[in-house]
Amino acid sequence: MASIFSKIIQGDIPSYRVAENESFYAFLDINPLAKGHTLVIPKKEVDYIFDLDEDTYNGLFQFVKQVGNAIEKIIPCKRLGMVVYGLDVPHAHVHLIPLQGVGNEVNFSNPKVELSQEEFQQIADRIKSAFDNKV
Ligand code: 5GP
Questions:
Q1: pTM of the full predicted structure?
Q2: pLDDT confidence bin for 135, thresholds 50/70/90
Q3: Is the CB–ligand 1 distance for residue 88 below 6 Å?
Q4: Residue 134: closest CA among 75, 76, 47, 71
Q5: Assigned superfamily of 4-133
Q6: 111 lines ligand 1 (CB under 6 A)
Q7: Is the dihedral of CA 24, 86, 96, 120 positive or negative?
Q8: pLDDT tens-place string over residues 23-79
Q9: In degrees, to the nearest 5, what angle opens at C-alpha 76 toward C-alphas 73 and 79?
Q10: How many CB atoms lie within 10 A of CB 10?
């Protein structure tokens, strides 16, 4: 059965897309630790990131960097945290989390930021514009 992230890539489940190319897809995490918290995934469905073939693995992190640069242009933050974590969704994914430098910000037990649909959409659109202008 296709992972929930494969269904997102196929458009069967909606997402707030921030970037895409033929091999990779980036979208806002629906339960964000911070505004702009983004997930970056390979379109190829592989559970464990270290099982990705060499080209996909290297391409994923090139894409992560491009997406990260776009997020940093839009979301005021000290740095972006980059995390591969979690066993919930069996589809390799990289979290990009804007950090303010206040400590303990990459704790997945922290309360999540509540955003309206309009806020999610606005953030996604702005990051997407920054991404599209850069690449
Ligand atoms: P992990 O496997 O990294 O623990 O968790 C998966 C991440 O994906 C979580 O941060 C969760 O909020 C996010 N997530 C799970 N299902 C969906 C979904 O349907 N849409 C979006 N945008 N994010 C999801």
A1: 0.97
A2: low
A3: yes
A4: 71
A5: HIT-like (3.30.428.10)
A6: no
A7: positive
A8: 999 999 999 999 999 999 999 999 999 999 999 999 999 999 999 999 999 999 999
A9: 85
A10: 10
